[in-house]
Every structure is written in C-alpha cells, then in structure tokens.
Amino acid sequence: MDKVYLTWWQVDRAIFALAEELRKNFMPDVIVGVARGGLIPAVRLSHILGDVEVKVIDVKFYKDINERMEKPVITIPLHGSLEGKKVVIVDDVSDTGKTLEVVIDEVRKAGASEVKVACLSMKPWTKVVPDFYVFRTDKWIVFPWEEFPVVVRE
Ligand code: 5GP
C-alpha cells in the first residue's frame, strides 16, 4: 500500500483548521481522544480551544499496516459520566470507520447529549464520515509521532 508521510507542521495546520471549524460550529464541553492516534490531536485541540476537558478511550483494531483484528476491542473504557455534555470524538483517521462506530456508541451510552466526530483525515471507503475532517486519502498515512528521527525508506 502506498504511504503518505505528514510533517508536524502539516498536522498542526490541520489541527488548527479543525479547531476553527469546531469553534464556529460545535464548541464541545468534552473532547474524547481515541488512543493512540487521536491523543496528540485531542490534547492540541483542547489547548487551542481554551482548556476543554479531555477524556481518553483506547480501542485496539490494527495489528499492522492494513492488518486488522476481527473487530475493535475497547482496552481502556471511558471514565466517568458524559451526562448532558456536548462531546467531540477526536481521532487521527477514519479508515474502515469501525473504531469510531464503537466509540460513538460508548460516548452515547455515557450520556452525552450531542456527539460529533473530528478527524484529521478520512479514507474514501469509511462507513463513518467525520462531521469535521481536513483531508481525504486512500493511502496509508504515516503521522509524525510514528516516525523515528532517522528513517531509512525503501
Ligand atoms: P478504523 O477503525 O477506522 O479502520 O481505523 C481506526 C484506527 O486505525 C485509526 O484511529 C488509526 O489509529 C488506525 N489507522 C487506520 N488507518 C490508518 C492510516 O492510514 N495510518 C495510520 N497511521 N493509522 C491508521
């Protein structure tokens, strides 16, 4: 599968674009970051939006690039209630969309009054199109936090 490599600068610009959209259209009470890929964007968004509370959920689905388990499994559940809260779920990318399906369900069960999804990117085939996203690609995305300082590419 072809890969696309993103820089910190590109990711930061994308996060600012998401923040702008959220500020205009859906200012959240709580950000739910999906570990691991959604955590850096979630924390950055929280600061840009002015100290919005961040909660974490961890869902395991991928074993390797494009190699998935049977279904996503929650390894760290959401902590506490989201009763009556406006919640934005933040992840790096919606690929099959199965992870987000599980997370949306959990956030609703925790009592959120409104739920939206914000991702840096989405794949054209996803079944969960984020309410807010910055770009589409059919390639495997390599985010800057996944890279080592020195990388030898074939
Ligand atoms: P999904 O459940 O939508 O198939 O995938 C969800 C998770 O798998 C994403 O949050 C991300 O962590 C990982 N993932 C899926 N596609 C990609 C990709 O192209 N690049 C990276 N780095 N992770 C991906």
From TrEMBL:
The keyword Glycosyltransferase applies. Signal peptide: none annotated. PANTHER family: HYPOXANTHINE PHOSPHORIBOSYLTRANSFERASE (PTHR43363), HYPOXANTHINE-GUANINE PHOSPHORIBOSYLTRANSFERASE (PTHR43363:SF1). The keyword Glycosyltransferase applies. SUPFAM superfamilies: PRTase-like. Keywords: Glycosyltransferase, Transferase. InterPro entries: PRTase-like, PRTase_dom. Residues 13-146 form the Phosphoribosyltransferase domain. This is Xanthine phosphoribosyltransferase. It holds the Pfam family Pribosyltran. One of its GO terms (molecular function) is glycosyltransferase activity.
